C-alpha cells in the first residue's frame, strides 16, 4: 500500500537556534520541500524567519525574548507559524540531526526513552551539539508526545571505514572501548555522494575528497561513494581549523596548559570549542566572509592558515585513497567563498594537476570549476542535510506501518 502526502519535519537544534524543514513525502527518494522556518537567538533577541520552497518569505518576526526563552517555546512558536500558514499539520514524524551516535547506532533510529538516554550518554563526546539535540527532542515530546521521532546520526556514514582509518595511536584496548576515529558531517557527505553519482557518475565511482567547509569543517575521502577516511575523529574538534574550534592540535599542548597555566577541564573545553579556530587566530570574527572582507593582517593570516591546513589534509586523504580523481566543495565556505576554493586548489596544483577555471569559480552557480585540462575534476555542490533527514525519517516511519 502506498502512503501519499505524508508530512514530516526535519529538525536541527543548535545552542540558540531551532531550524525546521517541512517536507511532503510521496516516495522515500523524492522528499518535496514545502517550507523552511527557523528561530535564531533564542532567549536573547529571537528572530523568526520562514520561507516557502520557492524562496518567498511567509513570516519574519522578532518575538519578545521572554516569549521565546527556550527550545520548548521556540518549537511551539515555529509550529504555530507553520499551522497558520498551512493549516493544522498532522505530522507523521519528526527527524532530528544528531551529531554523535558513537558505535551504538548503525543507522537512523526511532527515539524512545532508552534511545534518548543512550544519545545523552554520548554528550561528553559532543558537548557543543548533543545537549541541544536532546532539547529539540524534549520540545517535540512535550508539544506532541505521540509523534514518532527519529534520530539521524552524523557519524554513521563513516562507521564502515577501514579499521586503519578508525585507529588512534592509543593502546588497542581503548579502541575496543569505543575510543576511535568516527568522523562527522555524514548526512552531508551522503547527500554529496548521491548527487555526484547523478551529475558525474564516472567520477562518483572514483576517488573523491568531499570538503564540507563551514563554521564546522571537515573532509571525507570517498571511493565509490563510500567513506574511506575523514579529518574529524573521536569528536568534532579534530582535523581542520573551524569557525571557533581548534582542529588538529598536539595533545601535549593541553598537558602544558594544565600544568603551566592552570587550565582546568571547563577552561580547556571553552578554549577548544569556542575561542579558537578562525576567531581565535584572527581576533576579528569566526565568519569567513567577514575575514575575507577585513584588512586586518591577522584576518588574512587566519584565512591563509585555513587554506594551508585544508590543502594539507586533502593531500593526506589522497594518500588514503591511493590517488585523487576529484574534489567536491560544499557547505557555507565551500559553496560561497570562491577565493578560498581557488587558493586551496593552487596549493594542490603541484601535487595533483588541478587547475581552476576562474570564470566558473566566480559564477553564482559554479558547478564544475576545474578546467577541461585539469586531471582532477573539481565541483561545487550545495549540500542538503535536511533532505537526507527527511528520507531517513520517512523510511523509519514506513517500516513501522502495519502493512510494511
TrEMBL record:
The lineage of its organism: Bacteria, Pseudomonadati, Pseudomonadota, Gammaproteobacteria, Oceanospirillales. The record marks 185, 245 as: Transition state stabilizer. Its main location: cytoplasm. This is Acetate kinase. It comes from the Bacteria. Belongs to the acetokinase family. InterPro entries: Ac/propionate_kinase, Aliphatic_acid_kin_short-chain, Aliphatic_acid_kinase_CS, ATPase_NBD. It catalyses: acetate + ATP = acetyl phosphate + ADP. Substrate binds at residue 97. Mg(2+). Can also accept Mn(2+). It comes from Salinicola rhizosphaerae. Coiled coil: none annotated.
Amino acid at each position: 500500500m502506498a502512503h501519499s502526502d505524508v508530512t514530516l519535519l526535519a529538525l536541527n537544534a543548535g545552542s540558540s537556534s531551532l531550524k525546521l524543514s517541512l517536507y511532503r513525502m510521496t516516495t522515500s527518494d523524492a522528499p518535496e520541500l514545502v517550507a523552511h522556518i527557523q528561530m535564531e537567538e533564542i532567549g536573547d533577541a529571537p528572530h523568526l524567519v520562514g520561507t516557502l520552497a520557492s524562496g518567498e518569505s511567509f513570516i519574519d518576526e522578532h518575538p519578545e525574548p521572554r516569549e521565546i526563552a527556550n527550545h520548548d517555546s521556540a518549537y511551539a512558536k515555529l509550529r504555530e507559524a507553520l499551522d497558520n500558514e498551512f493549516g493544522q499539520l498532522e505530522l507523521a514524524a519528526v527527524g532530528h540531526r544528531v551529531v554523535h551516535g558513537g558505535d551504538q547506532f548503525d543507522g537512523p533510529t526511532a527515539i524512545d526513552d532508552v534511545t534518548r538516554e543512550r544519545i545523552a550518554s554520548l554528550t561528553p563526546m559532543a558537548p557543543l551539539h548533543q545537549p541541544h539535540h536532546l532539547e529539540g527532542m524534549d520540545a517535540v515530546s512535550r508539544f506532541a508526545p505521540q509523534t514518532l521521532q527519529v534520530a539521524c546520526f552524523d557519524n554513521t556514514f563513516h562507521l564502515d571505514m577501514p579499521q586503519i582509518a578508525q585507529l588512534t595511536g592509543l593502546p588497542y584496548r581503548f579502541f575496543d572501548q569505543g575510543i576511535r576515529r568516527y568522523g562527522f558531517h555524514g548526512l552531508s557527505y551522503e547527500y554529496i555522494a548521491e548527487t555526484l553519482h547523478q551529475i558525474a557518475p564516472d567520477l562518483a565511482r572514483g576517488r573523491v575528497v568531499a570538503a564540507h567547509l563551514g563554521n564546522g569543517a571537515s573532509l571525507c575521502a570517498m571511493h565509490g561513494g563510500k567513506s574511506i577516511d575523514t579529518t574529524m575523529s573521536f569528536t568534532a574538534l579534530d582535523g581542520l581549523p573551524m569557525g571557533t574550534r581548534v582542529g588538529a592540535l598536539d595533545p601535549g599542548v593541553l598537558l602544558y596548559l594544565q600544568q603551566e597555566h592552570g587550565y582546568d577541564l571547563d577552561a580547556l573545553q571553552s578554549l577548544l570549542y569556542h575561542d579558537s579556530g578562525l576567531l581565535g587566530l584572527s581576533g576579528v570574527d569566526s565568519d569567513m566572509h567577514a575575514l575575507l572582507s577585513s584588512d586586518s593582517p591577522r584576518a588574512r593570516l587566519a584565512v591563509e592558515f585555513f587554506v594551508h591546513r585544508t590543502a594539507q589534509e586533502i593531500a593526506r586523504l589522497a594518500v588514503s585513497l591511493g590517488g585523487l580523481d576529484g574534489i567536491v566543495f560544499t557547505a557555507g565556505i565551500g559553496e560561497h567563498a570562491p577565493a578560498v576554493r581557488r587558493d586551496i586548489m593552487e596549493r594542490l596544483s603541484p601535487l595533483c594537476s588541478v587547475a581552476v577555471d576562474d570564470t566558473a569559480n566566480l559564477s553564482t552557480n559554479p558547478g564544475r570549476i576545474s578546467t577541461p585540462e585539469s586531471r582532477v575534476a573539481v565541483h561545487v555542490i550545495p549540500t542538503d542535510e535536511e533532505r537526507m533527514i527527511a528520507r531517513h525519517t520517512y523510511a523509519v516511519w514506513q517500516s513501522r506501518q502495519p502493512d510494511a
